[in-house]
Amino acid sequence: MRQQGSHVIVLPFPVQGHLTPMSQFCKRLASKGLKSTLVLVSDKPSPPYKTYHDSITVFPIPNGFQEGEDPLQDLDDYIERVHTSIKNRLPELIQDMKLSGNHPRALVYDSTMPWLLDVAHDHGLRGAAFFTQPWLVSVIYYHVHKGSFSVPSTKHGHSTLASFPAFPMLSANDLPSYLCESSSYPNMLRIVIEQLSNIDRVDILLCNTFDTLEEKLLKWVKSLWPVLNIGPTVPSMYLDNRLSEDKSYGFSFFTAKSAECKGWLKSKQPNSVVYVSFGSLVILKDYQMMELAEGLKHSGCFYLWIVRETEMDKIPKYCVEMKLVLIVSFGLFLVCSARFGVADDDGALVHGGGAVLDGKKAVSRWPLISLHSCSPRSEDET
């Protein structure tokens, strides 16, 4: 894949936390002389995505929803429509590229869609699975897939689990939430486990982590599979400054209101504002929104609280009098640059995951889904 002028197709699952690291990966490929086509499944007929790089082409695929429709109300339906859209359009895209002389060499696909490996191989491409979570999480899912231990149906189903190579002893509370209470997340459990279903056939595994973060575990992983760590996938100006133009993420499924946010922040003292966001996927219950609002109200701090438009009716009416700003949009990572450009000088309350891996300021997490209960473990523990 590293030959000068080579071309790869990059296909993230269409949620912001997966688009962000994979789009950053495209920028790194471009810096090495590789061209990439970033395939985005969206409800927007003409997505306003800008690449800021001649070597990155965005190819939109409709997801089957009308613009403004909330696809996440029925996750199974959303996943089915996404998969159908990709299965219908991706083979056509590959064939068109071949006919035009722009032959792709590989398909870099989101690990949550393992069936894309067969699509790649059927069209003569190498398949590279991109894992957005650290190896600690993926290896736990791998052992569940292999049947190394059973998944507890409730949080208190097991007091202690077996230890695995390069692992400490794990209790039920150390498990990702999909495993900790499997009966509460049956569909998501199936997705995260199935991403390891064909791992032994994947040509290369890409992971959004870095060697020193999981050094001991990485040695064990490399003994089994061809692995390349490519993280942390943050803008270059916050990492190594190798890409002078890479100062923000630049790709978002949502409309950013960063100017409005920054204008409000400039009126506040440094380190006096807390940024609150639960991303593009989490759906909080009414009582959780109420409790969070009460906590913000009585904290004595200013807040920048990012709220999806579909969640606005859960906000208590008195919030308009609180010391916070309500941004009416679907989200969030609205300023994935919000993790940097907006939330840069303040603490942040997030639901976990990429915001923790990417963050460079104090972060307080509210563990809700996926990897968030187990990711705080340090290298000393693993």
Automatic annotation (TrEMBL):
Q: Which residues cross the membrane?
A: none
Which species is the source of this protein?
Brassica carinata (Ethiopian mustard)
Organism lineage: Eukaryota, Viridiplantae, Streptophyta, Embryophyta, Tracheophyta
Q: Which UniProt keywords apply?
A: Glycosyltransferase, Transferase
Keyword Lyase tagged: no
Which PANTHER family would you find in this protein's record? GLUCOSYL/GLUCURONOSYL TRANSFERASES, GLYCOSYLTRANSFERASE
- State the Gene3D superfamilies in the record: Glycogen Phosphorylase B
What SUPFAM superfamilies does the record tag this protein with? UDP-Glycosyltransferase/glycogen phosphorylase
| GO MF term (any one) | quercetin 7-O-glucosyltransferase activity
- Protein name, entry field: Uncharacterized protein
Family the entry assigns: Belongs to the UDP-glycosyltransferase family.
